[in-house]
Amino acid sequence: MVLVRETVTGDWQALRDIRLEALRDAPAAFGSTYEREILRPEAHWHDRIARGGTFLAFLPEVSAAEPAGLIGGYPEDPVTVELVSMYVRPRARGCGVGEALVATVISWARARNAASVHLWVTETNAHARALYERCGFALTGERQPLPSDPALGEVAMSRTLPCRGTSPDPRSSGRSGPA
């Protein structure tokens, strides 16, 4: 069973560790770099947590203390939440962690009355694109260079959220392959 919770101040080291691991493990998947993030002081991680919208996933059967995944969301504008920093540790892939993390950001966006959730994904990251499609996201037609490596391209995906009082999209949950 996947447990997802929003980060709290005491999580700063765990957040930093999994973020740095993500940047080492999949550098072509993120807009920042390991070299940039390793230099950030403790205060940066506390500030990131204080903003809200940063979540850690846990698989208690693997480790109750070490996060299995990470995701963030932030209000891009009054009606759009941007999904960022999605990462699932290799040993936790295929266990529903990715779906649980994405569902958490979608719920967080709904609680803020967002009309949609938007994200950028590297064009070559087929596993992540498949996860987002399973979670109800579709390509928007937007494209841009990856900030950390402009030789790579990113494509945008978006998911419209139902108005309050309507039933959610059934594609927002479910368990499938790796993220």
* Major sheet summary line: 7 strands, mixed
Broad structural category: alpha+beta
Could you tell me the radius of gyration in angstroms? 15 Å
The CATH first-level class comes to: Alpha Beta
Which strand order does the major sheet show?
1-2-3-4-5-7-6
What would the principal axes of the Cα set say about the shape? globular
Seen as an oligomer or otherwise, the chain set is single chain
* Helicity range: 25-40%
Describe this protein's structure.
The chain has a seven-stranded mixed sheet with strand order 1-2-3-4-5-7-6, with helices on both faces. It has five helices and seven strands, in the order βαααβββαβαββ. The chain has a single domain (3-172), classed as Aminopeptidase. The chain is globular. Helix 1 (12-25) crosses helix 3. It is of the alpha+beta class.
Secondary-structure map with pairings?
Layout: E1 3-6, H1 12-25, H2 34-37, H3 42-51, E2 54-58, E3 69-77, E4 80-88, H4 97-111, E5 116-122, H5 126-134, E6 138-146, E7 149-160
Parallel strand pairs: 4-5
Antiparallel strand pairs: 1-2, 2-3, 3-4, 5-7, 6-7
